[in-house]
Amino acid sequence: MSAFDALARIQQGLAQLESESLLRKRSLLESAQGAHVRVDGRELVSFCSNDYLGLANDPTLAAAAAAAIGEYGVGAGASHLVTGHHRLHHEFEQSFAAFVGKPAALMFSTGYMANLGVLTALLGRHGEVFADKLNHASLNDAAQQCGAKFTRFAHADLGQLESRLKRSAARDKLICADLVFSMDGDVADVDRLLELAEAHDAWLYLDDAHGFGVLDEGRGGLTEAARKSPRVIYLATLGKAAGVFGAAVAAHADVVEWLVQKARTYIYTTAMPPALAAALLASLEQVAAGQARRDRLRGHVEALRAGLAGLPHWRLMPSATPIQPLLIGGNAEAVAVSRKLLELGLLVPAIRTPTVPRGTARLRISLSSAHTPEEVTRLVSTIQALDRA
């Protein structure tokens, strides 16, 4: 079969995606990230960023990065195990571990690479992964690539998880779950997950991409029991509330040492630029001292939920986090509502299949402490008017 036939199939596939309102397009950001952005030449109020604390364009972080560039240059130049492991990387790992209450930590270039690295380092053909069905795609990919049996349980159905753990004959077991689910905004029951992990001698791996910086004075969604447990491995991504880039995994010191030796996505890649580690050290200070930002953010969540309660057609899903999903239903309708909001100067993304189940397309409203109360009120009144039109 010729390459042209293969290309024709790709073109047919693209046409099919477009006909189903599933063709994704990239918008061109022309400003710094923040509550106010310039996208494709238009000034907009953004409700689609994960910059929950407004740190992505914080001058303190920018100054720390600029100073580090002046002293250490731009690139790391090598992998961590050659000559790329900089003093700034090491300082951030130590500071991060202390902040979240775990013995040690390891930096990865992205959360995706962290998930792949951890699961492939800990599990193989003698293992079994137990995964919530609404876990992030990177956790699913990691589970499929680590060589272990991949067992999923219905979202937040810990009774079903328990029954599947009881049936398992695997030598090595690992329960993995988002701590804050990225499309629904609900929070995992960490203590109950830990109880099940202890009862069935399993690891508990928690992906806290959306809780770090926001929950529990910024330390994320770990409970005190989870901080103390040697079987709990904690991931925080650093490009959301932290405002920078990368990810950090915190765990028992021996687990971190094992990852240094065995996590291929850590070993076989160039280290993060030292300047980003400098920015992350500044970010960690801002997160620790950021209760006023978190209080403002909580106020925005409460105002939005009060304003969108009882809409005639659309439904705000349960969530106490900055992720506020407004259930629309069909793909085409969700895209149409998102486009109408864009026409009115409000940037709110439509989330469709396969990211969410068919029939549950939604607007994913992301709130930030950088928003003003007036901007939240504007979004609420606009959505109210569109739903009643």
Can you describe what's shown?
By secondary structure, this protein is of the alpha/beta class. The chain has two domains: 22-53 and 291-388, Aspartate Aminotransferase, domain 1, CATH 3.90.1150.10; 59-288, Aspartate Aminotransferase, domain 2 (3-Layer(aba) Sandwich). Helix content is 44%, strand content 17%. It has 15 helices and 14 strands. It has helices at 3-19, 59-72, 80-84, 87-100, 111-122, 137-145, 158-167, 190-199, 224-228, 253-262, 264-267, 274-288, 291-308, 331-343, 373-388; strands at residues 36-39, 42-46, 104-108, 127-132, 149-153, 172-178, 202-207, 232-237, 247-251, 315-316, 323-329, 346-347, 350-351, 361-366. The strands form three sheets. It has a seven-stranded mixed sheet, with helices on both faces. The longest helix is centred in the last third of the chain and has 18 residues, at 291-308. It is globular and about 60 Å long. The termini are far apart. The model has no long low-confidence stretch (mean pLDDT 96).
